[in-house]
Amino acid sequence: MTEVLNQLFIGGAWVDAADGATMPVDDPATGEILCHVADAGPKDARLAEEAAVQAQAEWARTAPRARSEILRRAYELIIERTDELAHLMTAEMGKPLAEARGEVAYAAEFFRWFSEEAVRIDGGCGTLPDGRNRMLLSRRPVGPCLLITPWNFPLAMSTRKIGPAIAAGCTMILKPAPQTPLSSLALAGILKEAGLPDGVLNVVTTSRAGEVCEPLLRGGRIRKLSFTGSTGVGRLLLAQCADTVVRTSMELGGNAPFIVFDDADLDVAVDGAMVAKMRNMGEACTAANRFFVHRSVAEEFGRRLAERMGALVVGPGTRDGVDVGPLIDATGRAKVAELVADAVERGARVLVGGRTPEGPGCFYPPTVLADVDPGSRLMDTEIFGPVAAILTFDDEDEVLRRANDTPWGLVGYVFTQGLDRGLRVSEGLEVGMVGLNTGLVSNPAAPFGGVKQSGLGREGGRVGIDEFLEYQYVAVPVR
User: Fold this and answer.
1) What is the pLDDT of residues 1-47, one digit of tens each?
2) Which of 229, 316, 442, 454 shows a CA-CA span of 20 to 30 A to 253?
3) Where does the Aldehyde dehydrogenase domain start and stop, copy by copy (predicted)?
4) pTM value?
């Protein structure tokens, strides 16, 4: 691994935590400590807030083209450093290098996309219906933002939030997950090199999230929170935002149904399942969680999926030929193992995998379970691991009812060769996104987000910048 940045980034400078605290960053493939990074406390949070607040007015006045060009330069630098960033990401969170390189490209594309959106922020002008006033509409940045990102896509989740904030003219404090701070610190270095003014982006790495974030949200100077993480933490943050009415956007948990009808092309469905389930070792909010397969094809689908899952190579992400890296930590692996054990105790058949391997690292094998009891814990828990749980169904109305029987509504997957049925079921799913005969929905040009307890607002696409902009209406009398 190349030399890493390990200090806080505040006001354009690299600094230690005010109290000198540090925290370890572990390699989940070995359990060994990679390095230590600064562990921010409340004083550091205040300094980052002051830097963002002080930079806001000047940054908001910056020409859209200038903001666009900074994002474009940062995009190019990320692409140039693909291998360096991929190795850094694999070291801190475990995904195979091929997937890490893919994430670097995905992350960079958010900067390219929002570099183009930065120059398309417009308003409007017109006469109001009563004819007495003209209406002038302008759009302006919402103000200083707190961005909180997860560990599973440490680079892409940062660029997906930073990109539109820069494009809109907002300053930021980024708090990355404590498991994966290195990608965010490297990104801060790239943005500084690309010409981002001091104070526009501040990065505070911390193991003391409550001490750092709550005062910021309750203090009245942070005007926007963008959070990706669990629904439970999202609820807590919403409560903290209430006192000062902080604008929020949240991408929360998922419990994605993967529906395979009797007329589906099983080759296409299994290909889609491999993507929807195994992207990032299953540690994705978009991961297929509940596989509803028509009774007439369930046995064949399960056999084919188990064959494909069983052929995957598990090991350290840096090793050639590895398909599946470690899970993020021992706690995450224990959760997956407990969910599988509960399902097996309730009668599920293990078609492949299902046993925690011995040895170092947080590895868990790709696993397929058949005949899963609907009452199993993994049916109403986000698995976040390489486990496909198969249930059967008999008709369309039944599977829609069961697919929607969850408080989450992020994404769903539908496989059928019938266009009418595909569109009908897609429209019937209570989710923000649907993959129709595909296992991949994420794209920087598409609006990403869910309904119900899966979140608020959208990221990416043409609407992604809207979360960082406010409207102002000026009434001008007609003389």
Assistant:
1) 456 799 999 999 999 999 999 999 999 999 999 999 999 999 999 99
2) 316
3) 14-474
4) 0.96
